[in-house]
Amino acid sequence: MTAAPVLAFALDCAPFTYQDVHATVCRIDVSRHRLRVFLNDEKGRPLKYFSGVNRLLAARDERLVFAMNAGMYHKDFTPVGLLVSEGEELHPINLDSAPGNFFLKPNGVFLVSDAGARIVESSRYPTLTERVQIATQSGPLLVIDGALHPAFRRESTSRYVRNGVGVLSPTEVLFVISEQPVTFYEFATLFRNGLGCKDALFLDATVSSLYSESIERSDLRASLGPIIGVVARDALDERQH
User: Fold this and answer.
1) Nearest to 14 by CA among 125, 22, 149
2) With a cut of 50, which residues of the chain have pLDDT below it?
3) Whether the Cβ atoms of residue 187 and residue 21 lie closer than 8 Å to each other
4) pLDDT in tens, 85-139
């Protein structure tokens, strides 16, 4: 067991271990770094890869400094649930019931609004009144107001490489990817007990991928749907934006 990582800057990734579960944790200070959501290029074609996002950004003299897959998607790469980018709703909230992890209720929405970052249960999202800048819906919720999702079991044997997002405060967000196959129970416990997150949301498994300039990492596990990231224009932008 180790303490929560102390990261040098407000946008960094570092290894983290809790109860023999190894992960990489990326801390984002949303008061200093604007999270952006990516899905399609300027012709409406799915970006699919971090390299696709970087090609799109290069035309604007920008580049990724951090990115992660940001929620579940269909075979045509369209989101299963809500997706908001730059204040525009690209896909509506999905409150349906169906098989699969996304629909393992309660599921939730990670968002950044004028009030900061937070995670809300999906059915609460339509009641929000603040202006939402970005949002992505996924499921299940891993940690709900300090409690693990009620469906998770310590004795589970279903293990995958997984990624998710947790919120420490309206300005502090943790994006986490496991470096080994883990159960939902293990992953949620890492967020709550290891990292101190009262709220955390599962993003996906198997396709889980991380891009981090600070640790020179760019995963290529699968074609991706929604991608969330932080963009810079030059080497100093990561600390000054």
Assistant:
1) 22
2) 1-9, 235-241
3) yes
4) 999 999 999 999 999 999 999 999 999 999 999 999 999 999 999 999 999 999 9
pTM for this one?
0.92
Indicate the Cα dihedral angle 66, 102, 39, 32, nearest 10°.
Answer: -30
DSSP string, the chain: --PPP--SSSEEEEEEEETTEEEEEEEEETTTS-EEEE-B-TTS-B--SHHHHHHHHHTTT-EEEEEEE-S-B-TTS-BSS-EEETTEEEE-------SSGGGSSS-EEEEEETTEEEEEEGGGGGG--SPEEEEEEES-EEEETTEE-TT--TT----B-EEEEEESSSSEEEEEEESS-B-HHHHHHIIIIIT--SEEEEEEESS--EEETTTTEE--SS--S-EEEEEESSTTHHHH-
- Which residue in the block uniquely carries the two structure tokens 């009641």? 127
Domain boundaries, the chain: 11-240
The tens digit of pLDDT for each residue in 73-87 reads 999 999 999 999 999
